[in-house]
Every structure is written in structure tokens, then in C-alpha cells.
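Lab manual, section 2.4: Encoding a predicted structure.

Procedure: take the sequence of the chain (136 residues), apply the prediction step described in section 2.3, and record the output as C-alpha cells. A sample record is shown.
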Amino acid sequence: MPDRHLRILVVDDQPNVRRAVRSMLASKGDWEICGEASDGREAIQRTEELHPDVVIMDMSMPLLSGLEATRYIRQFFPDSQVLISTFHDFPGLRQLAREAGAKGCVLKGDSKEFLIRAVESVVDSKPFFQTGDSAP
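Recorded output:
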């Protein structure tokens, strides 16, 4: 994928995880972290305000889960692609993420290369599922 300007919304209830994602994506100078959110409801609100190209969405959050927020975002803001980010890998995760409308899923704590590849893939409308049954 040729470098292009991307607007990314980072959603996680843990500030240290949001900082880590920012740090991992900092090497991509043409990618802008346009905002952050700490729960699913705020993710929906920020998506409506900011119209990001990609939403990196934590799966487990208070108030509204990442999967529920993903369903809403994909229904009402279809131009924003969602990439689920989780510590929890289990059989069926890929299917749950897809059913919610996510274009991909990555494990938190894995290399920044996985995260960068995943963002590039979902922006190109290619699924990237590192988790939930088998690697990409």
C-alpha cells in the first residue's frame, strides 16, 4: 500500500494501551491519530465527530463493548474501518469480530509490524485476522 494520509481513532479503556498504540504508529508519519476514546459509547461519539479512516477498537470495555460499538459504527459510519484489538484470543473470535463488522483483529502486545500490517490491510478492504483460529 503506498503511503497515504490516514486518520485513526484509538479506543481502549487503558490509557497506557492508547499511548502504546500511538507509539507503535508514530513511525508512520503520514498517519494521524485524530482522537482517542475510553469506552464504546465514546468511540461512537468520536467516530461521528472525527470520521476516522480506521478505528482501532478494544474488545472489552465498560459501558459498551468494543463489539457492540463496532456494530453501530459499521452500520452508521461505513467509511470507517474497524480493527479489533484484544488480549483475549479464543476459538470463534474471528467469527465474532466479523459478525460485528470488523475487518480485522490483532493481539495487544504483539509487534508493531502486526499492527501496521493490519491497519494497511483493513484500509485496503482486505481482512487481517491475527487471532481467533489461525494467523493471517
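Check your result against the sample. Residues 112-123 form the longest helix (12 residues).
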